[in-house]
Amino acid sequence: MDRDVWRVLTAAARSAARRVPGSDRRMRYCDHLILRMYLWSVWHERPLCWASDPRHYNTLFRPRQLPSNSQFCRRVGSPRFAALLAAVQDSLVRADAGVSLSYLDGKPLPVSLCSRDPDARIGWAVRGFARGYKLHVWARDDGFVPKFSVRPMNQGEAKVARQMATAPCRGAVLADANYDTRKLYQAIGACGAQLFTPLKRFSPNHKRLKTMDPHRRFAIELCADYPEAYQTILDRRARVERILSALTCFGGGLTHLPPWVRRLRRVQRYVSAKIAIYHARLRCRTAAG
How far apart are CA 116 and CA 274, in angstroms? Predict the structure, then answer.
């Protein structure tokens, strides 16, 4: 299984290196190598300096030459590398899957309260407050996560979801009560989809319903007229919990933030690599099934 996953990741890295325009400066070490080295270190949950040591490779991946630690860290921290990681995600996620059901949810990524990370913020996590970051996902019913964002813990889930609602989509989008806001209903409706959430509050006043956003009004009327059917729709939201569980419950999954992954840009890069590994594993399992 590991060999198949690495083969998929290698193909995605090669595709990303071809698709992202190169710089005018000729590099001694190609983007394809830097990408694979970073994915290798993240998969094994090791810091960047670990990837610069040739003793940490095996027959699955053994580069002939390795950059120095300073060269590798400089390349990984460049804006071009962020574009390469995004291209890897695009290569792994099937855009033409035709899935008409998707979900919104968040996963807390806490750090120690003693951490001096200035980007980490205190916000609501699970059954209480914590300090750190939060992964916001827009996941499809087939298990893939085409859209995600890593933000400080104090940023609201509905606000980040509105920022992700930019590309056209279709079908139904299910979320919990934290996403029950007027602006999010409008944003997702403008993309061509319909949001369904547990309704925290709504008034049966017909004058207010007439001036309300049509997508939120549709959800309110459906909940009022057919409460059992509306609850049946919301029960499907449990699928996103299984998707987030699958993202963490394998060797190399996104279980926590290691001590050397601090500051927002590093956390975003690390989480993106973990999701890429998850997508490669999911593609292997889908092909085998």
Answer: 24
